[in-house]
Amino acid sequence: MALLISDLVARPELHLSVITGADHIDRPVDAAHASELLRPSAWLQGGELLMTIGLLLPMDPGSCRAYVDDVVGGGARALAVGLGDELPYQEVPQPLVNAAAQAGLPLLTVGRQVPFIAVTKAVFAAQAAEQRAAVESAFATQRSLTAAAASGQGLTPTLDAWTQATGVRAYVTDPLGRVIAVNDTSPHQHTDTHEILIRRVVAGGMRSSAAAPGIEVQPLGARRLRGILVLTGPLPSEARLLVSGLVSLLSLELEGRHLANEPDRRRRAALLGRLLAETTTPEVAADVLADAGLAARSVRAVAIEPPAGATAQDTTRNAADLAADLALAVPGGLTRAHKGLVEAVVDEDLDLETVLTQFAPRRPAGIGSPVPPAAARNSLREATGLVDLSRGTGHPVRARQRRSSDILLNLGPRTALAGFADTLLGPLDTADPTGELTQTLATWLDAACSWDEAARRLAVHRHTVRNRLDKIARLTGRSMDNGDDRFDLWLAIRSRNAAQRASPSRE
User: Fold this and answer.
1) Helix, strand, or coil (residue 469)
2) What is the pLDDT of residues 263-272, one digit of tens each?
3) Could you tell me if 268 and 332 are in contact, meaning their C-beta atoms sit under 8 angstroms apart?
4) End-to-end CA distance of the chain, in Å?
5) How many CB atoms lie within 10 A of CB 485?
6) Three-state SS at 466
7) pLDDT for 311-340, tens place per residue?
């Protein structure tokens, strides 16, 4: 508890007496300071018991009011006047008493036989005792937290011990924000603010934290993020000393769970291997899903490129870590690290974009088409083929999210695409800067080479379309009746579109 003015007055060895302001002596005191300055506020930080013998202070009403106002403005909690036979005053002058009373400032006297340094030492000794008591209390609470963590009963006993010791509610979520442990002593409240702070910490990783009024969020784990600690309610200063210990104990429990689950992760990786085998039949696929605890009628595969390490061993470890992380978010946990990628097969309805954002942010990833479980290998083949495209686009790519031709074109260098397109379409650009010829060609090709449909889409006569296509043939040297020539022109238009999407400002 904080040291109060009344605590100092109650100490008989200090011989302090209250002259005025007795109803304000419940104020806390942070320090005791002596000064004979007429304007001491510049040398105060607030919270002091200011002591003076009044050596330079004129004892007229105006001077005393100005002095007291300055003391109050500096944040002093009380004023003490030293009295003595060899000092300026043997009792407090009435103008100073009146000024202190008007300002509501407690005015004390220091006994004749008590030096100011004794009061200062008493204040600092009380503060040291308070700090020592806080540390001893923190050690006692830490021991109770450690005992709860060592009970072998999971996260809940530790959270209960924390709340009982501090009064602050706490719960733990996984990296997706799903509550996995909450103290039994008081219910938690999972609000939108909690969700926002949790997402902020997940995005920032192990070195991040987040806070809002009455809420604090901390990451849990040793080397990788294993969970999130959410503290709700005002956090007393003495409790703050214990937060790091609580985080360490909860992290140890989550890391222990992670290690304990390694055999099960290997078993599930083997199940995934069976599911992806070429000889998998619907019956085998059903058995695999049953063993994994999945009841999906349709699944899709995902392939993720793990972070590269300084050595091949580091890269392998990164892949294993990412596969383990992904298993937390995938119901059934069918994941594995295989041939430089992390592979997973999940229920078609799983929100994979959210999972990838949380567990593999900014990592190249492909998402296959939904298929029956027995065809999971085909979905994985799609997903693996999309990893390179994802590397170029900077975000996960889903199969059938765009045309197959776009997928292939996006694998090529943008400069090569633009060069190929300009080679074939350059004569049209020169002859018709408005782009009318190129637009007519693109519309005709998209209309399955139908004159009437192209004319309808362009809102022109069909003979106009014919005349323009004849001009295109002369300028490009390509025949509209030749399938290979039509394909080259179609590919040139697609290439130009792909290059322009990647670099809109290209000239």
Assistant:
1) helix
2) 988 998 999 9
3) yes
4) 72
5) 16
6) helix
7) 888 888 888 888 888 887 776 778 999 988
